[in-house]
Write a structure and sequence with these properties.
- Two copies of one chain form a homodimer.
- Chain A is elongated, with a radius of gyration of 28 Å.
- Chain A contains 18 helices and 25 strands.
- Chain A has 599 residues and is an alpha/beta fold.
- In chain A, helix 3 packs across helix 4.
- In chain A, strands 17, 18, 19, 20, 21, 22, 23, 24 and 25 form a nine-stranded mixed sheet that branches.
- At the A-B interface, helix 2, helix 4, helix 8, helix 16 and helix 18 of A face helix 2, helix 4, helix 8, helix 16 and helix 18 of B.
- Chains A, B: It holds the Pfam family Glyoxalase_5.
């Protein structure tokens, strides 16, 4: 599979874009004329730079609104075309994208369009250039790829074919099955973009909201299957107009973009059983092995964990690292750093095959993490997520692998066994700046093998917080992602421990002196209005500052600790088959925390 | 006119919102239940605070999805309603908003809806509460205000009326003429919001993109005329869900919001000739009197102006202020500050009646500017725009008023008269951070009496730049506003001088040693491809680094100086009746400047 990317996906000047694409590992690039026009480098210089960087110029897009026009306009368009073919010759680009006319077309007659495009192709042939004709979703008379193919057939020139763009086809709901009808030799080019489902005019949707594959709602795996099965053998090229990518770091975006193509191609190969082309299979996690918190002095975190009912799991035999446990919820406190505060920095998953997960992550392009290990330490392969959190994979349970590196564990006595907190990690919650959110979704999909639940907006006192849960099908692993408003300060992360009896856990924690996040009295009045709760139960919720939710599946009781450093803790109980996160209470909690929106 | 605002328009907690509304000068507030639920203060405390602040609680919005439901749901809804009426009694709120059911309605039968709402009204009557029923644009069976009025008539209760919301009516394109059919005693409440025209699903449009009156595309003047002529005498209340206002400074947003109501009411009164209710008439500027630049050392600016062909207009007789002139383009350099760099800080307009402009601005709520003047100095009334730029009004020309405060002016000799730059200020260009843009649009509309041209997006190397020109009908005064991408650094401003012959001006400036912003050679190749220019003319453009545009009306030739401090200068020539700003060249110029997007 050859990979390519349109220069419009990236920020900066053309030379920077070329360097970023080469560094990310793309094979080629599509150049939008506007990027060349704004560059001080001549076409010859760009050509030479691409050659040195090992990038092919797969496509050049010099103008629009060519065909189906009156004779005077056609004559001027041919003059424009010749000038651009001369530029392409200097650039060494041999394929031109021609989008269907949106503005100047005066006739719906496909024969006239074909005649004019045929003349363009003949002129292009003098320069050794191919023309790839594409139906824009908002083209005046041609907005369906099947009509573009019809016109290409009518024009019938050797150097004329079609360009397919997933956005233009899927946004209109056109069936990609028709791609099989196209002569494979005429499938000249393929542009890929994902997008969220929006009920917005298609031009605005396309210009501002496209995403890289795996980040939106389109079924690109099915789409790419149709294209490849139809015989397309050209590059997979990304054309993603997105307000965010246009302004964020070009090198990072290019690397992110290439990962999306690796993921898409792998999933397409898997769906079609092209076994020799697939990466290692995704390894959906079956449990959270541990979370890791770092900071130069974590004694305050330790006190909170202890008050919650965690028990001391021992000191690492070689490092300034301690373990705290609450049943299968394991928290590693790492004081090997010299940074103040406390941050959630690591996350361990139990998976079927840790080595395969790591190989797959590497092939997709996730950066590997180096961690110093000592003789006898259990080695866990790891990668860095886009926000820097390290993700570890373990094919064994903690007890079967790294647990015995910790010494001095306090075993539970008969008395403490009853009062200790006992649970599992229900979910983690991480907030992202707006410019990193889509990249994190792709990482969680492609590298961590999690699926996205529908997103929702939660009103907080500093703005709307977008909440997007990514999880395994069985709910054993859940990552709640938040997109914070741009003006919000950096946000703490939180870890939720699921227990069988949150009310008792809350009573015991309070007895140990833990102050919970206090909830307003008005909140309990509203709970009563909404649910008509038993007075004793309501009084208990109110007394303990517990939060409550209920739906058709069951109910949810939970509470929060105050924030220490950049982290806080939640204890949750799920009754029945309740599968949510207490979204209705989230605005109240956000207001109570006020330091920032912290769903 | 009484004024009110929904608590959801503002950021922060309820107490902060109340303080901000009172400080801005609102008479009342609508409280959304979610804001009360998240508050630690009891309903009684909120009631007492509103009383102290002089705010009435005009409306309370406690729940949705009440009517047209099955019997079991209805019974539970009545229970919910009673609980909320008790809260309202504690709060001292006597009108409840009931939105048409979007989720749980099971029948389109208006008689059933009327029966259930009638029962709600009877229960409300026990608490002395009125119900205002509103058709949401996405209501399941009721989405038209005329249907809401139909149901209110069927229910026929004294304490039941309708609430009208401009968004729900205008977004659906419903004719507000039907408001005249509603019994004026049944017009219980009015909610006002503007919005940009978008082809987006109405729920998302409403939840994220509402604007204050005067900032969007709705004809609210016509709408409010209908409502008032129909006999409505309640408060004008703003209900604006907007992602930006939710997260920006609450005090500033409240002041901004109230200005929008003052503007709207004034324009409505003017349209209807309610002369006793109008403010002073708007004073559209007929010319730009001057621009003012400040900085502790402006010698670099002075050198640039001199190279451009400006001539020295004298020193102010009492202040560290100098004047430079190019015909009717006057630039005041103010070195009375101790800040480095150079900033565009002031702007003078010639208007018909400067005192009236100032009175109007004051009535709308624009902050007045105090400037120390000395005996004999000509006094110009002034206000501060949202970004801090001071705007001065002058009913006379500079020569008739302040010009003789400057001494030592160098008169043009016969030789210099020919080579000096001679022109007017064509336009100013100011970039705003995203969170200040809408407020600035309202200021330019309501206080400066400018009209908005359609906005466009310009791709720059650091992201899309939204460009919105506000101008007088005759084009004598034009302000180009830019909305910069959030990640961009603070942006310089620029001043464009219009001359009769930009090519000669460029040659002379170059002879004086001014280096223009260099344009890429590829840009000229593209100009040629687009326009087929005369070779000599193209060579001249290329040689002098001039930019060029052409349309059906004429053509545009212009060039830019480099940026000095936070400001740069443009010289433009308009041939024929060309009325644009060279938008097609803007991406190239943005790339050439690269310090940031600076259209």
């Amino acid at each position: 599979m050859r990979t390519s990317i349109a220069s419009v996906c990236l920020s900066g000047g053309l030379v920077e874009k070329l360097h970023a694409c080469a560094e990310a590992g793309f094979d080629g690039i599509e150049i939008m004329d506007a990027d060349l026009i704004a560059a001080y480098e001549s076409p010859e210089e760009i050509r030479a730079l691409c050659h040195r960087l090992g990038l092919t110029i797969d496509l050049f897009q010099p103008f629009r609104d060519f065909e189906a026009v009156d004779e005077a306009t056609f004559a001027d368009n041919m003059r424009r075309a010749r000038a651009k073919f001369e530029v392409m010759q200097r650039l060494g680009a041999d394929m031109m994208l021609l989008c269907s006319n949106v503005a100047t077309a005066t006739t719906p007659d496909f024969d006239i369009a074909a005649t004019q495009i045929g003349a363009l192709a003949d002129l292009a042939a003098e320069y050794g250039i191919d023309i790839a004709y594409e139906a824009l979703a908002w083209g005046r008379y041609v907005s369906d790829y099947r009509d573009a193919w019809d016109i290409v057939q009518r024009a019938d020139r050797a150097n004329l074919g079609v360009c397919l763009d997933s956005f233009h086809i899927l946004s209109r709901g056109h069936d990609p099955a028709g791609i099989a009808e196209i002569d494979p030799d005429k499938l000249f080019f393929l542009q890929l973009a994902d997008a969220p489902r929006m009920d917005l005019d298609v031009l605005s949707w396309s210009r501002h909201h496209r995403l890289f594959p795996g980040e939106g709602d389109f079924d690109l795996i099915d789409f790419l299957s149709h294209v490849i099965l139809a015989g397309y053998r050209g590059p997979l090229s990304l054309e993603v107009f997105n307000d965010t990518f246009r302004q964020t770091d070009v090198t990072r975006t290019a690397a992110h973009a290439l990962r999306s193509l690796h993921w898409l191609y792998d999933r397409t190969a898997a769906q079609n059983d092209w076994t020799d082309l697939q990466l290692d299979a995704p390894q959906p996690p079956c449990a959270i092995d541990f979370v890791e918190v770092s900071g130069e002095d974590l004694s305050a975190v330790e006190r909170t964990l202890s008050q919650l009912g965690f028990t001391f799991g021992g000191r690492h035999r070689t490092k300034a690292v301690r373990l705290w446990e609450a049943g299968d919820a394991r928290v590693i406190l790492n004081e090997q750093v010299r940074t103040p505060g406390s941050r959630l920095v690591g996350l361990g998953f139990e998976v079927g095959d840790a080595a395969a997960a790591a190989r797959r992550a590497h092939a997709i392009g996730a950066p590997q993490v180096f961690r110093r290990t000592y003789a006898g330490d259990y080695e866990l392969p790891a990668v860095a997520s886009p926000d820097g959190t390290e993700v570890y994979w373990n094919s064994r349970t903690a007890a079967e692998s790294w647990l015995d590196e910790f010494e001095g564990r306090v075993p539970l006595g008969e008395d403490t066994a009853e009062t200790a907190l006992h649970g599992v990690i229900d979910h983690l919650n991480v907030a992202y700046p707006w410019q990193e959110f889509d990249e994190a979704v792709l990482f969680n999909t492609s590298v961590l093998a999690l699926d996205a639940e529908p997103a929702s907006d939660v009103p907080g006192p500093r703005g709307l917080v977008r909440s997007q849960v990514m999880r395994t099908a069985d709910g054993a692993v859940r990552l709640a992602m938040n997109l914070a408003p741009p003006t919000a300060p950096e946000l703490p992360r939180h870890v939720a421990i699921r227990v069988d009896d949150a009310v008792s856990a809350a009573r015991r924690a309070r007895a140990r002196g833990l102050a919970f996040l206090p909830m307003p009295s008005n909140y309990y009045d509203d709970l009563d209005a909404r649910f008509g709760l038993e007075p004793d139960f309501l009084a208990e919720l109110r007394e303990l500052n517990l939060l409550y939710d209920r739906d058709e599946q069951g109910s949810f009781i939970h509470f929060y600790t105050p924030t220490i450093g950049d982290i806080f803790w939640e204890v949750v109980e799920r009754r029945g088959t309740y599968d949510g996160y207490g979204a209705a209470s989230a605005p109240v909690r956000l207001a109570a925390q006020r330091g920032g929106p912290l769903l």
